[in-house]
Amino acid sequence: VQLQASGGGSVQVGGSLRLSCAASGLTFDAYAIGWFRQAPGKGREWVSCMSSFDGTTYYAPSVKGRFNAENTMYLQMDNLRPDDTAVYFCALGEGICLGNGGTVYDYWGRGTLVTVSS
Questions:
Q1: For the chain, which residues score pLDDT lower than 70?
Q2: Are 23 and 78 in contact (CB under 8 A)?
Q3: What whole-number distance in Å separates Cα of residue 39 and Cα of residue 3?
Q4: Rounded distance between C-alpha atoms, residue 109 and residue 8, angstroms
């Protein structure tokens, strides 16, 4: 499985972007798509996870209410803030998202840069 995130760009505070995660070689009947981000000089932060099986989605508190995972492979980001500036990655694991943070991701894609300016 190969993944590639796209859709990043530069927006002003309050703007929106829609990220896509393109997957090739996908053979699982059920899988979890996770989004992560890494801001300059900081560690990787989990953003969301969506299960393809039933659409169950979990969000990090910092993005809940502003970000929305759609159709498994998309992340709609609204009301963006400067602290959302980061490289965003998508990741895939077989099975479903685990709400306790225990989702195992076996495949990772190259990221896309999101820059939010005030």
A1: none
A2: no
A3: 20
A4: 14
